[in-house]
Amino acid sequence: MNRVPRPFLSAVLLLTAAHAANAEWRVVNHREDSGADTTIAATTNVDGYTLEMYRDEVGAIRSRFTLSGGLTKLHESSCPTFQIDRGPAVNRSVNNAPCLASGQWAEFILGYVSNNQVTSPRLLSFLNGNSITFRFRLASGDYRDTEFSLLGSKRSMTAAIGADITVTAR
């Protein structure tokens, strides 16, 4: 039987633990300038990019992708594309609306709460998926992509959108 050297095994375990720590979702309470409190589900991946999900004051469920710090900016006329697992790649909000964007972030509306329900296949994919990949164009013209784990995100996302909200695909 072949034995794995202990230093190698220790390095693999440390890398796995570091990846798991970077994939953790957290719940953050944020006070808006208007005084309204917002609960946000958030994670930061190994590349330093951030993904957040929250319910705004009018019941829209929003997902915000933010670049890591530095001088890198998103291209001003193109929305990032996101793909959950092997689902379709999309770069539009519900009702085919464009994303909202600045140089550092892009935000998508995934659905609207009505009578404690949200009909949104994309939101359902967020809640039940394994990973999401964002592909985006930078102001320099270069393209990049980055991936976030969705494992363990459902509890945090449910806290952000409301535990009493039912999400369906149709």
Description:
There is one protein chain. This protein is of the alpha+beta class and 170 residues long. The protein has a single domain, classed as Immunoglobulin-like, CATH 2.60.40.1880. 19% of the residues lie in helices and 36% in strands. The strands form three sheets. Strands 1-2-3-4-7-6 form a six-stranded antiparallel β-sheet. It has a three-stranded antiparallel β-sheet with strand order 5-9-10, covered by helices on one side. A hairpin with a 3-residue loop joins strand 6 and strand 7. The radius of gyration is 18 Å and the shape is globular. The protein starts with 5 loop residues before the first helix and ends with a strand. Mean pLDDT is 87; it is low at 7-22.
Gross morphology is globular
**Topology as H/E string?**
HEEEEEEEEHEEHE
| CATH level 1 name | Mainly Beta
Q: Class by helix and strand content?
A: alpha+beta
Biggest beta-sheet profile? 6 strands, antiparallel
Superfamily at the CATH H level? Invasion associated locus B (IalB) protein
- Which blocks of ≥5 consecutive residues have pLDDT under 50? 7-22
| Sheet with the most strands: spatial strand order | 1-2-3-4-7-6
How many structural domains?
A: 1
Q: Topology of this structure?
A:
Layout: H1 6-22, E1 26-31, E2 37-44, E3 50-55, E4 60-66, E5 81-84, E6 100-101, E7 105-112, E8 117-119, H2 121-128, E9 131-137, E10 143-149, H3 154-161, E11 166-168
Properties at a glance:
globular; single chain; 170 residues; alpha+beta; Immunoglobulin-like; 6-stranded antiparallel sheet
